[in-house]
Write a structure and sequence with these properties.
Blueprint: H1 8-19, H2 23-28, H3 30-52, E1 57-62, E2 82-88, E3 96-101, E4 106-112, H4 117-129, H5 132-138, H6 141-147, H7 169-172, E5 177-183, H8 185-189, H9 193-203, H10 205-215
Antiparallel strand pairs: 1-2, 2-3, 3-4, 4-5
Helix pairs in contact: 3-9
Length: about 230
């Protein structure tokens, strides 16, 4: 498939939606929205195809424009961005990719947003035993030059059962292990944007390989997949 660039008109529509976030306005411009949504979906399909060239992707999910306002103080009915996630294949490959397109606030994100209890404990035990591989991987020049430092929420004190004086407590306290990269509107509209996103996603692979190895083995290195 030929690369499908993000159109300037799609970003303009999102800006207008941000200023007119009502059901009445959206319904009056729904056909325009559907046209932009189709174009952006094609772009995300291109990103998916690029990912398939160097990773195994189980599925792509493009998120709906409608907001769930049931438990939110913000009752505006629509998101003012497009977004999609890309899940890696099966239990062998861990980690996920995400790309949000929003005027002035476009970013890609990769990593582990919400590890379940067992996965988080396994990661912490690995870091407790020896965090050198983890630190070496996130410090790789090829990764760090694109993604910068690791991000994500953490607990305020040492997790239960872990020594608060452990030298790697800064990592052990983490609940999320993610990286983000921001893009300007100029970059988003460039015809090479999909390839730049793919370059970024490819650069995170050493981290995904390490985390997949950790999460599919015991602390003694025995496989959990048999």
């Amino acid at each position: 498939m030929e690369p499908i660039p993000i159109s300037k008109e799609a970003l303009t529509f999102l800006r207008k939606l941000a200023k007119n976030n009502t059901r009445e306005w959206f319904e009056a411009h729904k056909l325009e929205f559907k046209s932009h949504e189709t174009g952006v979906r094609q772009f995300y399909q291109n990103v998916h195809e690029n990912l398939d060239g160097h990773d195994d992707i189980e599925r792509m999910k493009m998120f709906r424009i409608y907001r769930d306002v049931r438990f939110s103080k913000d009752k505006t009915p629509y998101k003012t961005h497009f977004a999609a996630s890309f899940s890696r294949l099966g239990s062998h490959l861990r980690g996920g990719y995400y790309l949000r397109i929003k005027p002035g606030e476009t970013f890609a994100a990769v990593g582990f947003w919400g590890p379940d209890k067992d996965d988080l404990f396994r990661i912490r035990k690995e870091l407790e035993a020896d965090a050198s591989d983890f630190r070496n991987t996130i410090g790789l020049k090829s990764l760090k030059s694109i993604w910068g430092d690791i991000e994500g929420e953490g607990v305020k004190t040492a997790p239960k059962g872990f020594d608060k004086t452990h030298p790697d407590m800064d990592l052990i306290k983490r609940k999320q292990f993610i990286f983000t990269r921001n893009f300007s509107d100029e970059a988003v509209l460039d015809k090479t944007f999909a390839e730049e996103v793919n370059k970024s996603f490819r650069a995170i692979r050493p981290f995904f390989d390490l985390m997949s190895d950790i999460l599919t083995t015991t602390l003694n290195g025995e496989s959990l997949l048999d």
